[in-house]
């Protein structure tokens, strides 16, 4: 069987730490080209991973390479344009989170995937963590009863130590990032909670604010560095979701789900990725896997899933439609923060 020709748009940290290593490890993939806004950057990444061709603009790359599949891992403001052009060029697309910067763009991406008949998958990698998968099974089995409440958090010290765009990273500029910690980290947890609970959020109330991150010149950045949200699901469960770029020391990437007959703690303990505390006092400890951190990248499984969907002609579960539902909650949280009101989310 001939290999799938894969091209990657964006040569930053996520491409170097995740997409290229995972693509190179997949025997059904041939990485034919990489593209960066800056050709020197693309050349150095191509050299590192033995990629034959480099481009400074993705339209030329799509036209010349005619890839079967494309990864979009460029700054957020390019996600919609690059995805739509890649779909129209006949490629299946794996697009990084956050899916896009506006609701209209998310919709255009979904529509273009439908029109072209190509797959669009959004890289919500938290759905692949072993403890998240196990917790979802337990919740859906009903053994702990109804989910009543939850708290979920993703916080670390900020993207400036991670981004390859230094010293003044695009993550800190609204015209390129659109969102700060909420779109960077909060979006992971919204998608994760939708996955774990198996239902949609219907109401959101949020504070989304900038407290401490500054540009090298000294002014506060123009995107948020902290967000605290209260969310309600269709069945009435309520919980909090926190995203932060100002947590000193180690990352917090944990979730607790409180059900009628016990609680499930995910990635809240350095050793046990899942702990179940039953209402009768018993506890169950699971050592399943460890959560990726910026410093410790483990295989995400996202690339293998994307390639497998293409090879087996199976639509990806984390489709554009799924990405859009997650983004609706992000937009609702921003609307709530701006208006000071609880926002209803319609589907
Ligand atoms: N799923 C995850 O856990 C995860 C983690 C980190 C980043 N991301 C997402 O991946 C995307 C990239 O983030 P990153 O951390 O690699 O950022 P980064 O700052 O390290 O790199 C950004 C890269 O974008 C590329 N770029 C800039 N302008 C371009 C253009 N016009 N055409 C093509 N490429 C261009 C450059 O190659 C640059 O190196 C972002 O959307 C981010 O939210 C996802």
Keywords:
alpha/beta; 9-stranded mixed β-sheet; Dihydrodipicolinate Reductase, domain 2; 6-stranded parallel β-sheet; Gfo/Idh/MocA_oxidrdct_glycsds; Rossmann fold; 10 helices; 2 domains; globular; single chain; binds nicotinamide-adenine-dinucleotide; 347 residues; Gfo/Idh/MocA-like_OxRdtase_N
Describe the structure.
The chain is α/β, with parallel strands linked by helices and 347 residues long. The chain has two domains: 4-118, NAD(P)-binding Rossmann-like Domain (Rossmann fold, 3-Layer(aba) Sandwich); 128-298 and 326-344, Dihydrodipicolinate Reductase, domain 2 (2-Layer Sandwich). It has ten helices and 15 strands. It has helices at 13-24, 39-49, 58-65, 79-88, 103-116, 130-141, 174-177, 181-197, 302-311, 320-339, and strands at residues 4-9, 29-35, 53-55, 69-72, 92-95, 120-122, 147-155, 201-209, 226-233, 238-244, 255-259, 262-266, 274-278, 283-286, 343-344. α4 packs parallel to α5. The protein is globular and about 60 Å long. 49% of the residues are buried. The mean pLDDT is 96. Nicotinamide-adenine-dinucleotide binds at residues 9-15, 35-37, 41, 58, 73-76, 78, 96-97, 123, 125, 163-165, 169-170, 184.
Please, how many helices?
Answer: 10
Computed Rg: 20 Å
- Report mean pLDDT, rounded to a whole number: 96
Query: What percent of residues adopt helix (DSSP H or I)?
Result: 25-40%
Number of domains: 2
InterPro entries: Gfo/Idh/MocA-like_OxRdtase_N (IPR000683), Gfo/Idh/MocA_oxidrdct_glycsds (IPR050463), GFO_IDH_MocA-like_dom (IPR055170), NAD(P)-bd_dom_sf (IPR036291)
Keywords: Oxidoreductase
Pfam families: GFO_IDH_MocA (PF01408), GFO_IDH_MocA_C3 (PF22725)
Protein name: Gfo/Idh/MocA family oxidoreductase
